[in-house]
Specification:
The complex is a heterodimer of chains A (about 260) and B (about 260).
Chain A: H1 2-26, H2 38-50, H3 58-90, H4 92-105, H5 110-121, H6 125-149, H7 153-161, H8 166-177, H9 179-204, H10 210-219, H11 223-256
Helix pairs in contact in A: 2-11, 3-4, 3-6, 3-9, 3-10, 5-6, 5-9, 6-9, 7-8, 9-10, 9-11, 10-11
Chain B: H1 3-28, H2 40-53, H3 56-88, H4 90-103, H5 111-119, H6 123-147, H7 151-159, H8 165-175, H9 177-201, H10 209-216, H11 222-255
Helix pairs in contact in B: 2-11, 3-4, 3-6, 3-9, 3-10, 5-6, 6-9, 9-10, 9-11, 10-11
The chains are: A mainly alpha (about 260), B mainly alpha (about 260).
Chain lengths: ~260, ~260
């Protein structure tokens, strides 16, 4: 009930805003070509959906392409990030060597690397997925490193004495301890991965993807699809954040018996 | 600068030197397998000619700095103002804070196509993207910072007759500075990304570091791209370390505010 009340006013406001927009655009008080009314936005998105029916829905194809890239890129980024974080966290020498390099590379935006990757590995999925993976990798590696470095040395000693192998210690002592950090990293990493993939799709995608759809529409000045595309991005990220991340958090907290 | 500090800097520099030498050797021996991977010496030569030969590097850099200054300052001013306003008025807060948290999730660069349609392919679009990138992060952090200011402090100030703008400037903003500065640092990161991406995507722009990287693609000139990337890395580090970190330290000393952790 409280949740409902919290959302009532903003939803009401958004509905009012959309209503006012609709009226103003229809009466030509604001330019309908630049700010198409919500009904027109919906119709244009609908047209993307139906254009190539019944064989397939173009809209779903775009969403599918972006989802596919996001899943592959973030999986690679998460795995590589965990491994790199464990190695850097456990070995002080490796940490001293790679930490300055990572600090220097981390702030470089993914899209700035896009032209380079296009030259090296070509347009489309190779470039988009690599840059998405890279974007996810840094925050995860960084956070896992911090988590592993905060492990109580007594625990490691105890595990060594009881005969654990190094690999065993890495996955049974360090990683569970760093779980909270890992989750923070995954959250940040997924957000960065998502942003990077959409941005790189603007310049490197060749036929499908939400970013491609929006960019293509913008170059033909089809503002309805552009606005509709942004709305889809918002919904997509909302589902990703509320669905996937919260589920992940609940699962790991139960699995590792962590208390938030 | 103490001796330890210099030693630490040297230790931090060491990996770059090692990687640079390895990189140079691998490329010179032809072991990299990528024909278009420039050696550090190529990158250096390219930077040299961009600086002294054709003189374009400063022009690119200055255009970028101009855009980020205008866009980011706008974001700081309006972001803090909106943040304060939303934290003071309950109704406004209830209406707009969910709207902001929805819009904050839009990838900054996704505003570019929207702005391209509305405002055209020029400078305004890029500056507006930079503004939007910084604005949401700063407004959001200001708002949540002020909400966490101790209510007793506000009551105490009100009792002694401090209200209105004076309350904002002498109680609310100082009390939430840690959060505001966190927002400023987050915001500059978003603004940088918006700058580089915006310059690449806005077709009518000719100057800017992002444009330099983007144009190099037409000549497959990867050395110029690396110069651009290094320039982006250095400038963003300088802005963060020299300006914002310093601001953070200064406020902590002046106001006695201690950052968490």
């Amino acid at each position: 009930m409280k949740q409902f009340q919290k959302w009532l006013l903003p939803v009401l406001f958004i509905v009012l805003l959309l209503g006012a927009w609709e009226v103003l655009a229809r009466t030509h008080i604001i330019n309908g070509a630049l700010f198409p009314q919500p009904s027109k936005i919906a119709a244009e998105i609908q047209s993307v959906h139906t254009r190539e029916l019944p064989e397939r829905s173009l809209l779903l194809k775009h969403i599918e392409a972006t989802t596919y890239r996001l899943v592959i890129a973030s999986s690679i980024g998460i795995l590589a990030g965990i491994v790199a974080g464990l190695v850097m966290g456990i070995s002080p020498a490796i940490y001293r060597f790679f930490n300055p390099l990572m600090t220097a590379l981390m702030p470089i935006p993914g899209i700035a690397l896009a032209p380079l990757f296009i030259v090296w590995i070509g347009f489309g999925n190779p470039t988009i997925i690599s840059l998405g993976g890279l974007a996810a990798f840094f925050p995860i590696a960084y956070n896992v490193t911090a988590g592993v470095r905060s492990v109580d040395p007594q625990l490691v000693r105890a595990a060594t004495i009881s005969g654990s192998t190094r690999l065993g210690i890495a996955f049974q002592v360090y990683l569970p301890w760093a779980m909270g950090y890992l989750l923070t990293g995954v959250k940040l990493g997924l957000a960065r991965c998502w942003r990077t993939i959409i941005a790189v799709e603007f310049i490197a995608a060749t036929n499908y993807g939400l970013g491609y759809m929006i960019w293509d529409a913008a170059s033909y000045l089809r503002s309805g699809i552009v606005f509709g595309g942004i709305a889809i991005l918002i919904v997509f990220y909302f589902v990703l954040e509320k669905g996937v991340l919260n589920l992940l958090e609940a699962q790991t907290i139960r699995r590792w018996g962590m208390v938030k | 600068m103490t001796k330890d500090k210099i030693k630490q800097d040297l230790i931090n520099l060491f990996p770059f030197v090692v990687v640079g030498i390895l990189w140079e050797v691998i490329v010179q021996l032809g072991l990299s397998g990528i024909k278009t991977l420039p050696a550090p010496s190529d990158i250096f030569r390219s930077a040299w000619s961009l600086i002294w030969g054709s003189n374009v590097l400063f022009h690119h850099l200055l255009s970028s700095l101009y855009r980020i200054t205008v866009g980011y300052l706008l974001a700081v001013t309006l972001g803090i103002a909106v943040g304060v306003l939303l934290s003071l008025n309950k109704t406004l807060h209830m209406i707009f804070s969910p709207v902001i948290s929805l819009l904050i999730s839009v990838p900054t660069l996704a505003w570019v196509p929207v702005l391209l349609v509305i405002m055209g392919l020029g400078d305004r679009t890029v500056i507006m993207t930079i503004f939007l990138g910084g604005f949401f992060a700063i407004a959001y952090n200001t708002m949540s910072g002020i909400e966490m200011v101790n209510q007793n402090q506000i009551h105490a100030a009100e009792i002694v007759g401090v209200k209105g703008l004076r309350l904002v400037f002498s109680v609310l903003i100082p009390g939430s500075l840690v959060s505001i500065i966190a927002g400023l640092r987050l915001g500059i990161g978003y603004s940088w990304r918006a700058l580089v991406g915006g310059e690449m995507l806005a077709a009518m722009i000719q100057w800017g570091v992002g444009k330099m990287i983007y144009q190099a693609r037409f000549f497959n000139d990867t050395a110029v791209m690396f110069v651009g990337l290094i320039l982006i890395g250095i400038s963003s580090t300088i802005i963060d370390q020299l300006l914002l970190r310093r601001l953070e330290r200064w406020t902590i000393e002046k106001w006695g505010v201690v950052a968490e952790n």
